[in-house]
Design brief:
single chain, alpha/beta, 8 strands, 16% helix, elongated
Length: 129
C-alpha cells in the first residue's frame, strides 16, 4: 500500500527559471535528466528539501500554461515555524504576496506567492489551539 509521497511533479515552461525559483526557497538540486523523445528532449530536474522532492520537467514542444480554473495542482503548501519571518524572507527574495497573510478556518495563518508557471506557493503556520 501507499507508504509516503514520493515526489510532486510540476510541468514548467522554463525549467531554469523554475529551478532557480525553488532553489531560492531552499530546495537543492538532485538528479538532472535529459530524455530523448522523437519530438525532442524532455528536461527533468529533481530538487529536494527536508524530504520533500519536486520533479520539474519541461517538454520540448510548446504547451499552454494552465488556466487557474483548470483541474490539477493548484498550490504547494509549506509549513513554517515563523510566518512573519518567512514573509520577510520571501519579500527579500523579491516575491510579492498574491494572497494573505490571513487566517484559514482549518487553524492556520498563511500567505501565498506565485511560482514561475502560475502555481501558487503557500506558506502556513499552525495557530495555537
Amino acid at each position: 500500500m501507499i507508504k509516503s509521497l514520493a515526489h510532486i511533479g510540476l510541468r514548467t515552461q522554463n525549467i531554469a527559471a523554475s529551478r532557480d525559483f525553488y532553489q531560492s526557497l531552499g530546495f537543492e538540486p538532485q538528479r538532472h535528466l535529459e530524455i530523448e523523445e522523437p519530438r525532442g528532449t524532455i528536461l527533468v530536474q529533481f530538487l529536494q528539501q527536508q524530504g520533500i522532492v519536486l520533479e520539474l520537467y519541461q517538454l520540448p514542444w510548446q504547451t499552454d500554461a494552465r488556466l487557474a480554473e483548470d483541474s490539477g495542482i493548484d498550490h504547494l503548501a509549506w509549513q513554517v515555524d515563523n510566518l512573519v519571518a518567512c514573509e520577510s524572507w520571501v519579500n527579500a527574495l523579491g516575491y510579492p504576496l498574491v494572497e494573505g497573510p490571513c487566517d484559514h478556518p482549518a487553524g492556520s495563518r498563511y500567505f501565498m506567492i506565485a511560482g514561475p508557471d502560475g502555481e501558487r506557493v503557500e506558506f502556513l503556520q499552525p495557530l495555537p489551539r
